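Per your request, structure below.
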């Protein structure tokens, strides 16, 4: 019986990690994505970070950055937007960090 509980928890963590990825993919441009993740899952950001890292081997912040940079790369290649405008468009508030 105890083994089944561990499997269910692992399944739940895996599903949660997928939900986090889906939320990030849909809302990558929002600067307050951490708050949205908390509201969507009902868990603290600290707990989400822990579960996500356990399931994926990556930090949520790293994943958000990778998604935003992927989108930024597309904007830079496909539009005439200036770098700072692309940074703002992908949710990076401070242009010196882009």
């Amino acid at each position: 019986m105890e083994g089944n509980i561990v499997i269910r928890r692992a399944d739940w963590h895996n599903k949660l990690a997928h939900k986090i990825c889906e939320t990030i993919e849909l809302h990558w441009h929002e600067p307050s994505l951490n708050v949205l993740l908390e509201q969507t899952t009902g868990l603290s950001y600290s707990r989400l970070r822990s579960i996500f890292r356990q399931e994926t081997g990556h930090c949520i912040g790293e994943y958000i950055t990778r998604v935003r940079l992927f989108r930024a790369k597309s904007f830079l290649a496909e539009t005439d937007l200036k770098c700072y405008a692309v940074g703002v468009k992908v949710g990076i508030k401070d242009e010196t960090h882009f």
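The radius of gyration is 16 Å.

Regards,
D.
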